[in-house]
Design goal:
By secondary structure, the chain is of the alpha/beta class. Helices cover 43% and strands 17% of the residues. The protein has one domain (3-201): TIM Barrel (Alpha-Beta Barrel), CATH 3.20.20.70. Bound molecules: ligand LCLJCK34, 4-methyl-5-hydroxyethylthiazole phosphate (TZP) and magnesium ion.
């Protein structure tokens, strides 16, 4: 299973802990997402998490902060509706950076495809408290619809499902034709987040 881990914090774990546990559990794609942090805090953690990702040979993506991704030579950046437009980020970063875009509809996918995105984070699958101001929930039917319209129009981009996903949801979500899963909370709420990551990777 292709898993992207999105960093978060809890009463027990820091952002850095969350990335470390996902890497120890075998995840090889980490997105540093720190919504309530200052630019300085994001940079400080980005340097540490990037170093750890390098030790594990994992891809390191930064959420929202294009200039920081360029400065640190991160592997890429993830951008949503309220962030820098993908075409502008592509001009700044060039072709060697991975750029992901958020989609909630097929029209979002079309727009990001035209702008040169490398992958789509598509969601939310269901309600989650990890993100505020959620777009409408897609459910399985939402993914089926988006994937089938992509096939009809010849849009070939990896689609990563995100939002409120737990271990038990993964087989049915993968059956809709998406390429992978991104998650955060269900790993951090597990008794043993490292074992939970391993269970997902091996599923
Ligand atoms: C893989 C992935 N998909 C979607 C998102 C959401 O990005 P965005 O819409 O910009 O919202 P924030 O994460 O910035 O709150 C994501 N980060 N990763
Ligand atoms: C960043 C993001 N975008 C849509 S839902 C979400 C949060 C994913 O985290 P969780 O797996 O805890 O719902
Ligand atoms: Mg964003």
């Amino acid at each position: 299973m292709e898993l992207q881990f999105i960093t978060h914090y809890t009463d027990r774990y820091t952002y850095f802990d969350s990335a470390r546990m996902a890497l120890e559990g075998g995840c090889r794609w980490i997105q540093l997402r720190m919504k309530e942090a200052t630019e300085e805090e994001v940079e400080k953690e980005a340097i540490r998490v990037q170093d750890l990702c390098r030790q594990y040979g994992a891809t390191f993506i930064i959420d929202d902060h294009v200039a920081l991704a360029k400065k640190l030579h991160a592997d890429g950046v993830h951008l949503g509706k309220k962030d820098m437009p993908i075409a502008e980020a592509r001009k700044l970063l060039g072709k060697d950076f991975i750029i992901g875009g958020t989609a909630n509809t097929f029209e979002d996918v079309q727009m990001h495809y035209a702008a040169g995105a490398d992958y789509i984070g598509c969601g939310p699958f269901r309600f989650t408290t990890t993100k505020k101001n959620l777009s409408p929930v897609l459910g399985l039917e939402g993914y089926r619809n988006i994937v089938s319209r992509m096939k009809e129009t010849g849009i070939n981009l990896p689609i990563v499902a995100i939002g409120g996903i737990a271990f038990e949801d993964i087989p049915a979500i993968m059956q809709t034709g998406v390429s992978g899963i991104a998650l955060s909370g269900s790993i951090l709420r597990a008794d043993d987040p490292i074992a939970e990551t391993r269970r997902i990777i091996n599923s």
